[in-house]
Amino acid sequence: MKREKIFENNKQWVKKKMENNPQYFTNLAKKQNPKILYIGCSDSRVSVETMMGAEPGEIFVHRNIANMVISADLNAMSIIEYAVQYLKVEQIIICGHYNCGGVKAAMQSEDLGILNPWLRNIRDVYRIHYEELEKISSDEKKYDRLVELNVQEQCINVLKTACVQKAIHKKEVTVEGFIFNVHTGFLKNLHLDFPALLKNIEKIYRLTE
Ligand code: CO
After folding, report:
1. CA neighbor of 147 nearest in space, from 107, 207, 92, 202
2. Do residues 152 and 70 lie in contact, with contact meaning Cβ atoms separated by under 8 Å?
3. What is the pTM of this model?
4. Ligand 1 center to residue 170 CA distance, Å?
5. Helix axis angle, 139-159 relative to 162-169, nearest 10°?
6. Which pLDDT tens digit goes with each residue over 140-179?
7. Distance (Å) of CA 59 to CA 10, 93, 204
8. Which of 33, 128, 157, 169 could be a cystine partner for 69, CB 3.0 to 4.6 Å?
């Protein structure tokens, strides 16, 4: 898309919003009050607000390659802390997507330079779930399953943070894993059963009494 087109589209968008509600931007400027923190992949095909039918102001967004939540990533950790502590979001959604290039790259034996340490976190997900993944004979199904397991592990990484543990204890927030199916456009809830998933490891990661 050319620069001229971007500004033309922007003008049309403002016009449309103002036609529906002349106070739209006056209200938008007042404050944000999102109820959702969305952590997803940077992939251009996964358009957060569009696929969820949301308006500006409704979703606090963090995106990176393959929707990762890494404890040493100051960016992701700050986003989570700010969203939970100050914005008081009620829902944290980790959203992966099928055909994720980041997940695909992590399944290959290739030196990808600066991407290596980032993708190693996905290789760790593969290692944790090695037995299940190795049983899948179809490469495509294995790829899809790794996308899902990666979302599961990133949800667990969110649950390892102190602020989320405290908020969950007070029943202020929930953590959910979604997958966007690029083939159909549909979102899928993985319905992750965290008490079961955390059963054997909860005491290791617990940061509160
Ligand atoms: Co992706």
Report:
1. 107
2. no
3. 0.95
4. 33
5. 80
6. 999 999 999 999 999 999 999 999 999 999 999 999 999 9
7. 20, 10, 31
8. 157
